[in-house]
Each structure stands twice: as C-alpha cells, then as structure tokens.
Amino acid sequence: MTTTIIPAVTIKTGGSDTVCAGLPITFTAATPNGGGSPAYQWAINSVPVTTSTGSYTYLPADGDIVSVILASSAPCAMPATATNDISMTVLPQLMPIVTIAADPGNTVCSGTRVTFTATAVNGGSAPVYQWRKNGGFESTTRSYTFLPENGDVVYCQLISSYHCKLENSVNRPSVSMNVVTPATPTLVETADPDSHIANGEVAPLRATITNGVAPISYQWYVNGGPIPGATLPFYTNNNFVNLDSVSCIVSTTGTCAGDTGSAGIRIYVSNVGVQQVNCAMSNVQLIPNPNKGAFTLKGSLGTTLDQEVTIEITNMLGQSIYNSKVSALNDNINENIQLGNIANGMYLLNLHTANGNALLHMVIEQ
C-alpha cells in the first residue's frame, strides 16, 4: 500500500527578496515530494512565462510578484500541485554621500569649541562615521566636538549600510580650521594741534589704532558720559570747558568681538580767549612707567620759584582716582605716589601749577 504524500514548493533567490536594480536574478524552486519528474509553471505578476524547468532567470522590477506552480510526479501525491510566490523589492543602485557642517563655523576665535555634524545620504539604516583630524582617527559618532588649533584639517568618512550602494565608503572633502587669536586694540588719542584751546575754539580729536587690529567700533565720552552718535574715529566740539576729560573706547567686532582699548585726553580752555600757556615741565618724569601703582614724579617745573602743584590722576573715562597737592621747592618736584590696588590700563596724570599744566600718560600693569 502506497502512503499519500503532500507536495510542496518554495522559491529561493540565493539571497533575499530585496535586490538591486539592473541585476538579473535566478529563481529556483525547491520541491519536497515533487517526484522524479516534476513539472513547473512560472509566472510574473500572474502572467505565465515559457520556462517549465525548476529555475527561472530574469531582470525583476520593484513590486514584481514571481510565482510557480509545481505539478508533482510522485505517486499518491495529494493534491497533485503546489504553489508559492515571492514579492520582489528592487532598489536603485546609489552612491553614498556625506556632508558635514561646523558649528559655529570653520573660522573661530581661539578657545572656542567646534562641533562637526555629518549628514548621510544613501547611508542605509546603520551608517558608520569615522572622523579624522590631521590624518588621525578621532571618533565614530555622528557629531564630533573638539577644541581646534589654527590649520587643523578635519574630514569624515561614511561607511554605508545601504543595500545597493555603488561604493562601500566615501569621504567628505576636508575642512581647514581658521583659528583667530584675539588682539586687544591699542589706541592713541590726539588733539590737533594740541589740547590747549581758546574759549569757543573747535578742538578736533582723533583716535588712532596703533596695532592694526580691525574691524573696530568707536565710542567717545566727555567726563565719563557717552556722546550720542559719536562713533567715528574722530570727534570735534567747540563747547569744551576747562579741564574736560575726553576719551574714546574702541572695541573689536567680527570673529573675536569684545576686546577693548581706550585712551583719553584733558582739554584746557583759556577763559580770556587766548590759548592757555603750558609751563615747561619738560623734565618731569614718571618713573617707572609702566608701573604697578607705585611710582615717583621727579624733575623740573620750568621755573625758579617755590610753588604748589596739584596732582590729579584720572582713568580714560575722566573719573578721578587720585588727587593731591604737594610743594615744589626751587623748581623741583620729587614725589612718591602709591595708588594701591588699581586696575590695569592707561591713565592720565595731570600736573596743575600757577604757571600752567602738563599731562602725562601712565600705564598700570599689575
């Protein structure tokens, strides 16, 4: 007595049902209980094809349904036929692409951390990123953060997991870092021809950057108060009063914005319409300069008389930080001054005598 058997058929592709466009695929029927001489009927999207063998090769399109009907030759096969089908997913063959973006950019101020982020196109569901700096391996995360130095070269390699990639990996063209070292602007403020003017006379003032730092923003002050609209390298006024303190603060803008420099000048106005006469004081020295807040004023005042001298020190905003009266005997001054704890920067030292005035610039470097 012969036992009844049940025939079956499955379709194999040698891979999966996801294939790449442009590649022919061979479909093979596996037939348990197919007998010694089984017959096959293949169809594409229910349209029969002429092949009747156990395999069929063709170029599939996305969404094609490949089916086969097995007619078993085995004795007592019940039923005599079996069917199976497979739905094809056909993907285009694509080139992987990776782009990178730097935040805040590839031109930064020194000490600024930069984050590079990679974006993959055709990278598949599990792309792998490899970051390199100056040729050395750095990271495998999608984003890479570091503290750059000037001239650092960064690039990212994408290893794609996309099924139908034309290349396994691609590199993003390298990015060179431009790291800017901030420079504090140094400023000289001048009056033309000098800071001694007659009552009502126009005093043209100009601020000159001496170390080439650019770009620059300007703000002028009189006696510590900002002058609205006075934001150019020059400032003119015919309404100064005697001992007005005029200063200018400049700031860097651009990549390393915020560093500032300042300079100031004292305006001397004659009340009788004649320019005030400055006493000689050509031999008065401020020693040392720069200093830490302790220094000596020493020298000749340009007369042969005993006289009282007023010493006033102001910052660049015209604010007085020191005021004292001393006696100069036989034309000479020799005074030790101790300012104590004072901020670094440039200051103005004003000497006032009955015969005139003199202005010295002083730098504090603690």
End-to-end C-alpha gap = 113 Å
CATH class of the largest domain, named Mainly Beta
Q: Quick one: biggest sheet?
A: 5 strands, antiparallel
Query: What is the CATH superfamily of the largest domain?
Result: Immunoglobulins
Number of spatially distinct domains: 4
Low-confidence stretches: 272-279
Summed over residues and divided by their number, the pLDDT gives a mean of 86
From the 3D structure, determine the CATH topology of the largest domain.
Answer: Immunoglobulin-like
- Percentage of residues in helical conformation: under 10%
Quaternary: single chain
Keywords:
mainly beta, five-stranded antiparallel sheet, Immunoglobulin-like, 366 residues, rod-shaped, single chain
Can you walk through the features of this model?
This protein is mainly beta and 366 residues long. The protein folds into four domains: 10-91, Immunoglobulin-like, CATH 2.60.40.10; 97-180, Immunoglobulin-like (Sandwich), CATH 2.60.40.10; 187-270, Immunoglobulin-like, CATH 2.60.40.10; 285-364, Immunoglobulin-like. It is 0% helix and 51% strand. It is built from no helices and 34 strands. It has strands at 10-12, 18-20, 25-30, 39-44, 47-48, 55-58, 65-71, 81-87, 89-91, 97-103, 107-109, 114-121, 128-133, 136-139, 143-146, 153-159, 169-171, 175-176, 178-180, 187-191, 196-198, 203-209, 216-222, 225-226, 234-237, 244-252, 260-270, 285-287, 294-300, 307-314, 320-328, 332-338, 345-353, 356-364. Strands 13, 14, 16, 17 and 18 form a five-stranded antiparallel beta sheet that branches. It is rod-shaped and about 145 Å long.
